[in-house]
Amino acid sequence: MATARRIFDSGVGARLMAKYRALENSGDSWSVLRNKYTVIILGAIFVRIGAQMTKADVEHLRQLALGTPSREGYALPICDDGFRGPGLRQFIAALDGYQAGTPHDFQGPSCFACGKAKNHIGKEVPRCGRCHFAWFCNKDCQRGYWPIHKRVCRADRGWSLNV
C-alpha cells in the first residue's frame, strides 16, 4: 500500500483524477453515470491507500456519491447501478475522516446507519443482536435505521444457507 501511495503521490494520482473528472459528463446518459462512478471508484482507491487529494476533490467526490443512485437492499444485477445504502454512508464517512497518508479500511464492518467504522468510533462496531448481519455503532443508529432493517432482520433459524 505504501508503494501505491508513493506512486499516486508522485503526481500520477492527480493526473488520473484530472483525466477522469474531465470525462465525467461526456457521452450518453449511461456513459455519464459510468464515468461519474469511475471517478468515485478512483476516489475510493485514493482513500484506501491514503494518497493525497485536494479538498476540492474530496468535496467533489462527496457530491458525486450523494448524487449516485443507491438502494438499501438487494437489487437485481440488471438494475444494479449504484451504491447500497450502507456502502454509500461508509464512503461518505471515509471522506469525512480522510487524511492523506492514512489508509482507510473499507473491508471492516461499518455502521449501516451512519457509515462509521472502528477508526471513527474507537471500538469495534457491534452487530445487530438479533440477526447478526448488520452493524450499528450505537443504539441511536440502530433505532434510526430500524424501519429499513426490520424487513430483513431475522433471528438465527438454526439452519445454514450453505446447503
From TrEMBL:
PROSITE patterns: ZF_MYND_1 (PS01360), ZF_MYND_2 (PS50865)
GO molecular function: zinc ion binding
Protein name: MYND-type domain-containing protein
InterPro entries, per the entry: Znf_MYND (IPR002893)
Keyword set, alphabetical order: Metal-binding, Zinc, Zinc-finger
Source organism: Schizothecium vesticola
Segments passing through the bilayer: none
Domain of life: Eukaryota
Segments forming domain MYND-type: 111-153
Residues spanning the signal sequence: none
Pfam families given in the database record: zf-MYND (PF01753)
